[in-house]
Fold this protein.
Amino acid sequence: MRRALAALALILPLGGELALWPAVAAGAALTLDEKGRQEATRVGERSVNDEAFDAEWRVKNDSGDSLSVVTPFHRLVVAARHATFNGKPLKPGEPEKILRENRDRLVVWVELHGGTEGFARLYTPRLVVGDREIKASFVQNERTAHRQENGRYLARCVYGFPTADLDGRARASLIVADGDGRNVSTFALDLAKMR
């Protein structure tokens, strides 16, 4: 029996539609065609009981800060997951509406830690890809961070970057600087490992 399952695990991802584990990402899809929308919806619907469903989009750095890269695929997975959890599948046309909200933008949700309530107010993010720096087209820093049990503060920030010059297979660094231009948090992103 084990050998049969092992053989299926090797064969099905290559030729069949079924897979015993998530497919390896071919790179972050910065736009989705109909097939991509259907797959994202299917992944989201099947992920209801999987707490680690979004592991491929999460990144943590050495200082304990974390982020989630919200690709169009990831956004639809989350929407389909929530809809399924609530017992209501996505309505026709809803995926297109959801994707329109952040068209031409790669969104990153970032959780940063600091020593004071307003530490993240003036933070400025930039995405570095090779020798290019991409400035954020959207910045929403949490003005009043939440005090944690350890006395430190947690700020949840949202950054959007234009995708015009971005390759979905790129390796990049998200660098967050304070109001004086000092780098306070850096994340290594490998978009090739994400969908």
